[in-house]
Amino acid sequence: MIDYTETLINLGYLVASILFIVGIKMLGKPETARRGNMLSALGMLVAIVSSLFECCLSFEWVIAGLVIGSAIGAIAARTVQMTAMPQLVALLNGFGGIASLLVGWESFHSQPDSNLFITIAVILAVLIGGIAFSGSLVAYGKLSEKISGRPVVFKGQQAANAAIIAAILLGAALVSYNPDAFYAYALFILIIALSFALGVLGVIPIGGADMPVVIALLNSYSGLAACAAGFIILNNVLIVAGALVGASGFILTGIMCKAMNRSLANVLFGGLQAGSSKGASAADQGEAKPISAEDAYYVLEAAASVVVIPGYGMAVAQAQHAVRELGEILENNGAELRYAIHPVAGRMPGHMNVLLAEANVVYEQLAEMDDVNPIMETVDVCIVIGANDVVNPAARENPDSPIYGMPIINADMAKTVMVLKRSMGAGFSGVDNPLFTRENTRMLFGDAKATLQQLIAEFKEN
Ligand code: NAP
Questions:
Q1: Along the chain (462 residues), what's the average pLDDT of each consecutive run of 10 residues?
Q2: pLDDT at 270
Q3: How far apart are CA 309 and CA 345, in angstroms?
Q4: What's the CA-to-centroid distance between 345 and ligand 1, angstroms?
Q5: How many angstroms separate the CA atoms of 7 and 364, rounded?
Q6: Cα angle 185, 188, 189; round to 5
Q7: How far, in Å, is the centroid of ligand 1 from the Cα of 189?
Q8: Is CB count within 10 Å lower at the N or C end of the chain?
Q9: Whole-angstrom distance, CA of residue 250 vs CA of residue 255
């Protein structure tokens, strides 16, 4: 006889999986990203409701978890600052990792004598979930400056990591070989403890600066752990969702490394030499030329083409609405306007896109680095708003610079460059920026939002 409940549950899982895949695809473009997010959330609701029809579930616990989790999530999403988003994502990854670990632990606890396939899935869930949990907590601590962001390195660190990995592999082999053995449970708990240790030791040598890349990687780990958990409880949608998170996390990690021109190995085991003063050639040691908002107005008023390059400072200043307002004024003044977005501007992928979308900047005006660089020499004014590393010409010109090879937006090639920032201070990489002392650059010092408001006032007065 056909089991209709089972069929309906699987149908629900199929619909949820399709919604996840279409939703992720839609996240790839700013125009469709919001709807993609909603679609994926709807998929998660369908998945949860479908799973409630699985047998033997205790509804009270599920509903209690749903209510508590949704309340915490809603408060966190509403109160978190955009600049603190990477650490929130780190925490969420960590929770995903520990959830998969707990599924694996419960399964081993209640059915230690499952078949070999399930035992391996259990071990993978606790191992990867444990690494994702403790690694994400360290990443959270570094990003929120609750612990030092400096790389923590000690003698014999690599050897300690290798010894832990060897011990985990040996323990996993022994547990898989005979899960009923009297020592199996103790070994299993040891594997969990070692996974936590490996997560901590893997992330502490990485500088706070590289945490966003590490978070993308840990995100993919938490997906893989969820995938393993899906095999343990034989839940199709968990397997699909976990695999999607695992794959997209890896792809995102690759994109971030490429945009910084660094290998993953370099991020995990190397790290930038923060605080370096390298990057400026002798020819660049000139004086910066400050400009007042009033004089900047005259330059902008005469510009026929303007490219706005936002960076982390725009997020800090929360200047996105003022950026949009100035953009509209420039367009009404007859200028052709574009916003050039570097893939790693800000502190997380898509950071600038999200802020500009929040301020209702039209998507058609957003241009990618590769589209805007070829026409940069024809641009009258480039307005650099709180960006630094992503427009640092040393990355293109100076082989001694620690960021040499990182693709940049060639702001320096525009006829005039206006840089809005508070000081001559370095950006995220700690590297000096010769753009600030170039002949065609004018520095508009001050908080980006305040400066933009002054420019807007100048246009309104004149
Ligand atoms: P950046 O190089 O970090 O520079 C930001 C600049 O903003 C600073 O030099 C700072 O100068 C200025 N600033 C800060 N607060 C400001 C305010 N209130 N008003 C005006 N200016 C302000 O930023 P970026 O050019 O966007 O480059 C991003 C960096 O992050 C890259 O090195 C990238 O590799 C790294 N990163 C990004 C991601 C990602 O996913 N987006 C991930 C990992 C790493 P003052 O202090 O002088 O004002």
A1: 82 95 89 91 92 79 87 89 82 94 94 85 96 95 84 87 95 91 93 96 83 88 96 92 94 86 78 44 69 95 96 95 96 95 86 88 90 96 96 92 88 97 91 94 96 96 84
A2: 63
A3: 9
A4: 7
A5: 44
A6: 90
A7: 43
A8: N
A9: 9
State the pLDDT at residue 455. 96
- What are the start-end ranges of the H helices in 53-183? 59-79, 85-110, 116-143, 157-177
- Find the largest Cα–Cα distance for the chain: 85
Q: Which pair of tokens denotes residue 99?
A: 């959830």
Query: How many residues can be counted in the chain?
Result: 462
Q: Is 347 in the pocket of ligand 1 (CB under 6 A)?
A: yes
Q: What are the angstrom distances between the C-alpha of 447 and each of 27, 296, 314, 316?
A: 31, 15, 9, 9
Measured in degrees and rounded to the nearest 5, phi and psi for residue 389 equal -60, -40
SS3 category, 381: strand
pTM of the full predicted structure? Answer: 0.78
200 Cβ contact partners less than 8 Å away, ≥ 6 residues apart: 134, 135, 138
358: nearest Cα among 328, 324, 332, 327: 324
Helix (H, G, I), strand (E, B) or coil at 348: coil
Task: Give the residue from 233, 216, 202 showing the smallest Cα distance to 99.
Answer: 233
Residue-level pLDDT at 277: 44
Would you say the CB of residue 448 lies under 6 angstroms from ligand 1?
yes
Q: Which two tokens stand for residue 185?
A: 């449970």
DSSP 146: S
Residue with the two structure tokens 């022994």:
174
Q: Which of 284, 389, 412, 432 is catalytic?
A: 389
Does ligand 1 lie within 6 Å of residue 402's CB atom?
A: no
